[in-house]
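Tutorial, part two.
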Amino acid sequence: MQPGRARWLELSGQALRCLLVAYLRSGTRLARHSSCLKLCGAIAYLPTAWIRLRVGHCGAGAGVHGRGVMRALPVLLMMGWLGGVGVGPVWGDTPVKGTLVILGDSLAAGYGVEPEQAFPALLQRRIAAAGLGFEVVNAGVSGDTTAGGLRRVGWLLRRPMEVLVIALGGNDGLRGLAPAATRSNLVAMIETVRMRQPGVRIVVAGMQMPPNMGEDYTRTFRDVYPWVAREKHVALIPHLLEGVGGRPEMNLPDLIHPTPEGHERMAENVWEVLGPLLEGLRGRGQETVDGSTRTRS
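Running the prediction step on this input gives:
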């Protein structure tokens, strides 16, 4: 085989794999099944497998021609199947049932720690260990506020999701913004999600301010989250930083951002609410008009 043609086939295979991975992450019911992941991987791997069969397995210049290629097709498909096993978001033998998005600030982004030490990554491990099959998408942006989250949520909703965790507001409080504005932004985010994707389960992570912000302010700010959860009928994590906030050993020197141990505790706080919710969603999908699998409210 000419080197130029082999290179073209290799690049074609890579491009096809990229397109198939994009499809597999699109959220449709078929794309979530592990057999579909392997089959798509096999198809995408065929150009590479064909090159290997002609050059690597048959010897340079020997080649396989005409009917020989057709006879080799089962071998090509098997090579493609094996080469495509790793395509797509599957943990172990558990197919992906849905997407869980964490809309947050530097706490979710893992400021000051390694990405795998941040609480969203820790939640992904818990989900995989429980065999729940949800993919965690970390949409944490350092410095973000509820106003920023409201601007971003529409973009995030371009992909299907089953669960949205809103972990915003800490920067609102640290900047002394009006709790009423924080409440209004949280409500607007929830309403936007329900308008665009009515079946999404929403979880709000409560935030609290340190005492130096003043008694009235800290009380008013703290009360925002239970009010939103009650009025908009969403799940509530009472305090994301329970056991972390105000404890120097759980925070970096800035006393604002958690250490890896602090993220472990945050993951526990979130899992107390999120774990049962995901368990409840196990096997409770429903078909929508576009064929995707969505969860019931």
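The radius of gyration is 24 Å. In part three we will examine how such features are distributed along the chain.
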